[in-house]
Design a protein that fits this description.
about 290 residues, about 15% helix, 4-stranded mixed β-sheet, alpha+beta, 5 helices, 5-stranded mixed β-sheet, Immunoglobulin-like, 2 domains, disordered N terminus
Length: about 290
């Protein structure tokens, strides 16, 4: 497992759910708290627990489209401590592509942009990208948004005190560029958001094993119901997923669940900072295989 977010692919989120076991009401006796950066706990509260080894929680900042200069953090998870900075930067390349956030966040990386290398010396992280990124430097507004998002994403990691952004070795920002002031550029996360419903199965002809309702962050689920489009309750057991980022249905009648099936989700949740959300949303079911 490389990276998990609630905007986990969409969520890179499938990775959290397909590669990890669920927590039922009776959780395993031996669990360990995820190691989290200060930025994670500041915006999303105490990190969840895991029984799948050592995991690391951090945030990635994405620039807002309607509040120029402002960025918002989103939670991500990884089991690969040695590559956290690289993982964060590579995930930034894709932008906030979750459909539920369409139009709310800027895509700052031009098409074809690639991360060439990440290095660190004396506390300064240098991120070198392909030639495509050089075009951003010509737009001061977009360039600053890119710098703010990338700098604060990297500065959350222990020992990082400076950031250099390059395009094929050429500096895109002067060494005297001031580091962003977090309080001035970060827009607080909104209330929790239900992103999508995804059904998981083992193979093309296999029945659906579970339906995952994916949230954009760890939440405490106060109420969750999976409903057919006419409002009939879908029978089955409902669990809270690993990392607290999804409600998971083990359907009693999986034959009802196919690609595009309309399902309604009725929910009431609270995130670890006390932000609450409730509602009822309809989704066309996406069916994935565990190897997808």
């Amino acid at each position: 497992m490389r990276i998990i977010t609630a905007t986990l692919v969409t969520l890179v989120a499938l990775l959290a759910l397909t590669g990890c076991s669920r927590k039922e009401a009776t959780a395993p006796a031996k669990v360990a708290r995820v190691s989290a950066t200060k930025a994670f706990t500041s915006y999303f509260g105490p990190a969840p627990t895991t029984d799948k080894g050592i995991c690391y929680a951090f945030v990635i900042y994405f620039p807002r489209a309607k509040e120029m200069g402002k960025i918002t953090p989103f939670p991500f998870f990884s089991f690969d401590e040695a590559s956290l900075k690289k993982i964060a930067l590579e995930r930034m390349l894709g932008g906030m592509d979750e459909r539920s956030y369409a139009g709310e966040y800027l895509q700052l990386f031009p098409k074809g942009s690639r991360l060439l290398s990440v290095s660190e010396q004396a506390g300064t992280v240098s991120a070198d990208f392909s030639k495509e990124l050089a075009a951003v430097a010509g737009d001061p507004t977009r360039a600053r948004a890119l710098y703010n998002a990338m700098a604060l994403t990297l500065l959350q990691f222990n020992g990082v005190t400076g950031v250099r952004i390059q395009s094929e070795g050429r500096e895109l920002f002067p060494g005297t560029a001031p580091l962003p002031v977090e309080a001035a550029v970060v827009a607080q996360p909104s209330v929790p958001r239900l992103l999508s419903l995804i059904a998981m199965k083992q193979g093309p002809s296999a029945p659906v094993l579970e339906v995952d309702a994916l949230f954009d962050r760890p939440v405490d689920i106060k109420e969750f119901q999976f409903l057919e489009n006419d409002g009939t309750l879908l029978a089955g057991e409902v669990f809270h997923s690993m990392f607290d980022m999804a409600a998971v249905l083990k359907p009693k009648d999986p034959g009802k669940l196919t690609q595009g099936t309309k399902i309604r989700a009725r929910y009431q949740v609270v995130d670890k900072m006390g932000r609450s959300a409730s509602g009822e949303s309809s989704f066309a079911l996406e069916v994935k295989q565990h190897q997808d």
